[in-house]
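ligand=calcium ion
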Amino acid sequence: MKRILVVEDEDAIRGFVVVNLQRSGYTVVDAASGEQALEAYEAADGDFDVVLMDITLPGIDGFEVCRRLRAKSATLGLIFLTARTQEMDKVGGLMMGADDYVTKPFSPSELVARVDAVYRRVQLAAVSSRTAVIESGPFVLNTRSRTLHKNGRPIDLTQVEYQIVELLMQHHGAAMERTKILSEVWGTAVFTDAKIVDVNIRRLRVKIEDEPSSPQYIQTIWGYGYKWCP
Ligand code: CA
């Protein structure tokens, strides 16, 4: 769902903006002041993709609302609605907080095109921050779904096994000390014998190695720990 917050104190403009965005498939929440905007944002638990923000508002102005929202979310799309040339100059200096601005008066198609562009950017940023994929040899590890595939086939891992693989793959080529693996996977507070690492590595090798008896991917560093070798 494409969710947008529209902040505009002039009823006619707010109505025009809301109607046109709804026609383009956006779910719109509107606010007539900076205070209302902040309340609406909190009420929705920040669940907006884009905020369209008038600058000249009674009370807290659009710049200040933008600054506060930006502090809450780095990924939120922010577009200013500007009325005057002086505001434009000010916007130029504040573009670091906003993604774009639209100058009044604007046509529905211009408005929707600008909002769509920012929305797409927000979506792309969200997808790339969610999906962290590590590829190594025949393996693909997905840290979001917490899955490991070998040659395109899923490998059934326990949570602990998954965490060990993720840790080793993130440090591929580097020797990881057994006690380091223990503290990273089981937590430093847990008093556990480092042998549990060896037990899990043995099980992992059965699942992921071509020849578990002569492991190729998880190599043993004698007297120290293990290393992921792509
Ligand atoms: Ca205004």
